[in-house]
C-alpha cells in the first residue's frame, strides 16, 4: 500500500469536514466480522459499544445494512423485508448529513445500494433492483473518480461487472443504462488484487470473508466453471477457521458437488453457532442431504414447509416430496403434490421454476430416471448408472430418451470417462433439440466443457453458442451467463 493511499485512508476515516464522521473503529470492525460469522447478537452488541465511544459514526449505517441484507438473503421473511426497507430509507437520509469529502461516503452509498439490489432480486422486485444497481454503479464510479488510489472501490466494481456480464440479451438495456460492459475476467482479477492487498496489509484482513464470498459466488455462478472444478478452499484459511457465512456457502456447493458428508458437517456447525437468526432454510438443505444419501425423507421437508415465512423453495420442496412419492409407487400423492406446486410458493429461484415447469407438464416421471437423478445429486454415480441400466430405452417416451442420455453422460463426466460422456451428450443433443430446450441446453453446455478440456476450442465455442441460442427454459438465464463467461475466457466476443 502506497504512503499516499495510507494517508488518504487514515485521514478520511476520522475526518469531519462536514457532518457525521466515518470512524473505522475496533468495534465497527468486530461488528462487521460478527455479521459474516452469522452472530448478529454480537454484531449489535459491538455497534452499541461503538456508540458509547463515538457518538457520531456513519459506519454504523453500513453495518446495520449488512445485518439486514445478510439476514434477508439467507432467511426468507417478507415482513422483515418490509421493515428493513423502511430502515434502509432512514439510513440513506442520515447519510445525506455525513461528511461528503470522506473516501467512505460514496463507498458506503454504493455498498448499501448494491446489497439491496441482491435483496430485491431475491424477493422478486427486479425493477427496483435495477435502480439500486444503477445507483451502486453511479456512486462507485464517483468514488473512483474522486479517489483514484482508493483500492477498496474494486470490490463493488467487481460485483457490478460480474452481474452485468450475466444480463440476458432482452435486458441489455440495463447494461447500457448502467454504462458498464460486464467482464468476468476483469471482475475476478479485481477481487484477486484486493485479496493480495489484504494479505500484504493485515489491518484490512477483516475484509477477507466478504472478498472470498464474492470470489466463490463469481466462480460458482457466473464464471462458467464446472462446480467440480472449483476449489472451495482456494486462497483462504483452512475451512475450520472460516467465518460461518463462508462455511454455509461452501456447504451449499458441497451438496452440488455430491460431497454430502462434508456439507452436513459444515451445516451442523452453522446451525449450532448462528445467533440472532432463525435460518429455516437449513431444514431444506438437511433434507436435500438425507434424500441424496438414502432417497428418503427424514421429516425436514415438512419442517421447512411448516416453518417458512416466505415463498422461496416451497415449490422445490413439494417437488422433492412428489419425487419420493413416485419412488414409493404412490402416483396419486405425486399428482396431489404437483397440483399444490401450481398455487403455492413463488418462482424466484431456478429450482422453483423447474418445479413449476414439471407440474405444468403433467407427465409422471420415469421411476428409474428419477432415482438415477437423485443418486447423482447425492454423489452416488455408480448407483445412478445402475438405475439407468434397468431402463428399456425402447419403451421410453421420446423426451425421456434424451434425459437418459444426458444423465448417463453426466455420470461418465464425473467419473472422467469423457469419450462415453461425449457420445451420450451427442445423442441427447440430437434428440432434445426440438422437444426439450433444458436438456438440449445443458447437454450442449457440458459437451462444450469437455471440448474445452480437450483443447478443441472451435467445437467448445460452437456448443456454448448453441446454449445461448436455445429456446426458453427455467435455467436459461444461469446457463447463458455461464456460457457467455466461457466465451469471454476463450476470447470470443
Descriptors:
25 helices; globular; disordered N terminus; mainly alpha
How does this model look, in words?
The chain is mostly helical and 493 residues long. Among the domains are: 1-150, no CATH class; 280-365; 390-493, Serine Threonine Protein Phosphatase 5, Tetratricopeptide repeat (Alpha Horseshoe), CATH 1.25.40. It is 70% helix and 0% strand. It contains 25 helices and no strands. The chain has helices at 3-14, 26-36, 40-53, 59-74, 78-95, 105-122, 126-146, 153-165, 172-178, 184-200, 208-221, 244-257, 260-273, 281-294, 300-307, 314-327, 331-343, 350-361, 367-377, 381-389, 398-414, 418-432, 437-453, 457-469, 476-489. Helix 21 (398-414) packs antiparallel against helix 22 (418-432), helix 22 (418-432) packs antiparallel against helix 23 and helix 23 (437-453) runs antiparallel to helix 24 (457-469). The longest helix has 21 residues, at 126-146. It starts with a helix and ends with a helix.
Radius of gyration, in Å, reads 24 Å
- Gap between N and C termini, in Å? 35 Å
Round the mean pLDDT to the nearest integer and report it: 89
Q: Report the total helices.
A: 25
Beta fraction: under 5%
Instruction: State the share of residues found in helices, binned by percent.
Output: over 70%
Could you tell me the number of beta strands? 0
Order of helical and strand elements: HHHHHHHHHHHHHHHHHHHHHHHHH
**Unreliable stretches covering 5 or more consecutive residues:** 1-19
| SS-derived structural category | mainly alpha
Strand count, sense and closure of the main sheet?
none
- What spatial form do the alpha-carbon principal axes imply? globular
Amino acid at each position: 500500500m502506497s504512503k499516499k493511499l495510507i494517508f488518504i485512508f487514515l485521514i478520511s476515516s476520522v475526518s469531519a469536514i462536514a457532518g457525521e464522521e466515518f470512524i473505522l473503529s475496533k468495534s465497527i470492525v468486530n461488528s462487521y466480522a460478527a455479521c459474516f460469522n452469522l452472530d448478529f447478537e454480537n454484531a449489535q452488541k459491538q455497534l452499541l459499544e461503538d456508540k458509547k465511544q463515538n457518538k457520531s459514526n456513519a459506519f454504523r449505517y453500513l453495518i446495520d445494512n449488512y445485518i439486514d441484507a445478510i439476514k434477508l438473503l439467507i432467511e426468507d421473511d417478507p415482513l422483515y423485508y418490509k421493515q428493513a426497507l423502511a430502515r434502509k430509507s432512514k439510513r440513506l437520509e442520515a447519510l445525506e448529513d455525513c461528511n461528503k469529502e470522506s473516501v467512505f461516503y460514496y463507498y458506503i452509498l454504493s455498498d448499501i445500494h448494491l446489497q439491496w439490489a441482491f435483496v430485491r432480486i431475491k424477493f422478486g422486485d427486479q425493477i427496483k433492483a435495477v435502480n439500486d444497481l444503477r445507483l451502486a454503479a453511479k456512486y462507485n464510479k464517483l468514488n473512483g473518480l474522486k479517489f483514484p488510489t482508493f483500492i477498496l472501490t474494486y470490490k463493488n466494481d467487481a460485483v457490478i461487472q460480474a452481474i452485468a456480464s450475466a444480463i440476458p440479451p432482452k435486458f441489455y438495456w440495463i447494461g447500457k443504462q448502467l454504462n458498464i460492459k460486464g467482464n468476468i475476467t476483469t471482475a475476478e482479477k479485481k477481487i484477486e488484487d484486493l485479496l493480495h492487498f489484504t494479505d500484504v496489509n493485515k489491518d484490512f484482513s477483516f475484509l477477507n470473508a466478504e472478498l472470498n464470498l464474492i470470489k466463490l459466488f463469481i466462480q460458482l455462478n457466473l464464471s462458467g466453471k464446472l462446480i467440480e472444478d472449483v476449489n472451495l478452499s482456494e486462497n483462504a484459511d483452512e475451512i475450520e477457521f472460516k467465518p460461518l457465512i463462508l462455511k454455509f456457502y461452501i456447504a451449499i456447493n458441497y451438496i452440488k458437488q455430491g460431497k454430502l458428508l462434508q456439507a452436513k458437517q459444515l451445516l451442523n456447525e452453522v446451525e449450532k453457532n448462528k445467533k440472532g437468526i432463525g435460518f429455516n432454510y437449513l431444514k431444506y438443505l438437511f433434507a436435500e442431504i438425507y434424500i441424496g444419501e438414502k432417497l428418503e425423507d427424514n421429516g425436514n421437508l415438512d419442517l421447512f414447509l411448516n416453518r417458512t415465512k416466505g415463498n422461496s423453495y416451497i415449490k422445490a420442496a413439494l417437488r422433492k416430496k412428489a419425487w419420493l412419492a413416485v419412488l414409493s409407487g404412490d402416483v396419486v400423492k405425486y399428482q396431489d403434490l404437483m397440483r399444490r406446486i401450481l398455487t403455492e410458493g413463488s418462482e424466484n429461484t431456478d429450482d422453483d421454476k423447474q418445479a413449476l415447469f414439471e407440474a405444468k407438464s403433467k407427465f409422471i416421471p420415469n421411476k428409474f430416471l428419477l432415482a438415477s437423478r437423485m443418486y447423482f445429486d447425492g454423489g452416488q454415480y455408480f448407483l445412478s448408472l445402475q438405475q439407468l441400466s434397468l431402463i428399456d430405452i425402447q419403451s421410453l417416451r421420446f423426451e425421456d430418451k434424451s434425459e437418459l442420455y444426458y444423465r448417463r453422460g453426466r455420470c461418465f463426466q464425473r467419473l472422467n470417462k469423457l469419450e462415453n460422456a461425449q457420445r451420450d451428450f451427442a445423442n441427447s443433443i440430437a434428440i432434445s433439440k426440438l422437444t426439450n430446450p433444458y436438456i438440449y441446453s445443458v447437454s450442449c453446455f457440458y459437451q462444450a466443457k469437455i471440448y474445452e478440456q480437450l483443447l478443441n476450442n472451435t467445437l467448445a465455442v460452437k456448443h456454448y453458442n448453441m446454449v445461448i441460442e436455445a429456446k426458453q427454459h427455467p435455467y436459461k438465464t444461469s446457463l447463458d451467463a455461464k456460457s457467455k463467461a466461457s466465451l469471454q475466457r476463450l476470447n470470443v466476443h
